[in-house]
């Protein structure tokens, strides 16, 4: 049984907590946060604390924290042999005696249900032994375990911004264009699902469709005329130019 | 039984052909294209022609053609009472005696298998009677039938460019960033699927994540430093700015 202390109470912390608690081989023995209010939801299921000096001894201290506070908090953890690991896609591995990275490559929102067993977990550790422990802990929740160094992880994190964060923003632009014209956004959802499904078995550049790749200037011109919002117009122009440039 | 002549042999034509042929209430009695080679795949299943003056009498002439040739071809169709409809998201309804629009709101690629029954079909017709016929034909292949006028259809088509064509291009940028660093794109696919799944039951603007919405300037700065490709850098900057502007 692996004992885990989770530091943080945001979306990643909440989902990691749920994933570990569902595993018979892991136990989250404590959750830390400096604000007592945010600990309330965890109190029924495990011990909680707002005091870093009261952290229990554990196999893993999982820092599900904002990038800019990870190092500061990590330096205050007193542990004999526990691994101190963060879940950040962009921060380097910490310089503590036993350190690691436990980066779940997924988008976590409150309330969304996830199949944790399919979430890629990207691991890094400062020793072979610690990597072995992190791998064993990772396998408790997911079948998709990858060993990835910090540079590679930063590449993945950057790609993830394009395929997840920016993609979601395009969905939101699509929604606002529909709303302006009193059209239900729901009508686009089959298209959105198929667009993501298509790249499961195809390279996205092989299945590009739309006016840009057809160099259909009359449609492009009409679309630009329809767009009221200045920044939406700029995005339309830049992405169209990028598609044309890529496929030329 | 509705008799249908399909004009065109591209992705939309091919998928519409398959959808209608799977229905017991529709029959594609002929496929037209000016190039004989592209008709070969249809020859085993139905009549074909390269000559517009040889078109059979049908209930529906479905023009699955590039926008700029729709009108020209439509004017050459000689029919007694058949409806002449196109499948374009952006073209207005034709001015023939019996005219309509039969716009399947989906992305069609060769080789991809689709559940046609879930594809939204956006209909428009020049009379109540013709609308009734198009609705009956639409229901042969899909449960998602919408009556949409030309202005609304153009709005949907514009939104579709953002949520489908531009989204797919972001996937392709993610893939090229991974490739440059010898990382498998596959590792991002669970994230891509979850990003599209999340908006099934949430407004995309409510589930925006990532460095832009957190105004995490140090990550944004590092990402811009990582990007080698000039246009990818411009896209990163513009979409980041747009997310910050929207959520401010």
Automatic annotation (TrEMBL), chains A, B:
Gene3D superfamilies: NAD(P)-binding Rossmann-like Domain, ProC-like, C-terminal domain
Domain DUF2520: 119-243
InterPro entries reported for this sequence: 6-PGluconate_DH-like_C_sf, DUF2520, NAD(P)-bd_dom_sf, P5C_Rdtase_cat_N, TM1727-like_C_sf
Ranges where the Pyrroline-5-carboxylate reductase catalytic N-terminal domain occurs: 4-78
Domain of life: Bacteria
Name assigned to this protein: DUF2520 domain-containing protein
The species this protein was found in: Psychroflexus longus
